[in-house]
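Inputs:
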Amino acid sequence: DTGVSQDPRHKITKRGQNVTFRCDPISEHNRLYWYRQTLGQGPEFLTYFQNEAQLEKSRLLSDRFSAERPKGSFSTLEIQRTEQGDSAMYLCASSGWGTGETQYFGPGTRLLVL
Amino acid sequence: AQRVTQPEKLLSVFKGAPVELKCNYSYSGSPELFWYVQYSRQRLQLLLRHISRESIKGFTADLNKGETSFHLKKPFAQEEDSAMYYCAPHTGTASKLTFGTGTRLQVTL
């Protein structure tokens, strides 16, 4: 499968624990996005990388959230001291030259904070 | 503030009936508009974008700048069209998409 992949697909954690998610974009894509989706809502933008540079962060991304894309390839999203309100589907997408602005989405990581 | 409105959470139609999924946007500048679709147990995927003016799976969408709308239409619904549909404007500065709350299309026999 040459599409966007995310790991893990599901994560259950206790309140206060730290979690880290990984996203592997389509290999030739230089842009990578993180979105969060809660029940009954559309995906909400969290942050965006062009190569290794994080160019924009949403106000939704509190200090407990951090994202990295160290070599301009895969990206990680870490949530520290998780809260029940962090329970959501976390989606990763990528795009690049030749795709126009079309973003290709991964399957998502579903987080449940108990 | 930039906003996307999809007024219907659920749209239920009979097979063969016409479909119109509504999307209104409030945006500064000239956004590019997309429709994304999520079929059951599949990932979110692009259905169509206004700039390409294509018809994908029989769906079309016309950008009406006067009404700031980008409604998705199909003349004859098929069972396989049942899915969640999201309207998503994109502005060039940050390349991010702003999704509406989505409309679930249910096509019944």
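The mean pLDDT of chain A is 93. Flag for discussion at group meeting.
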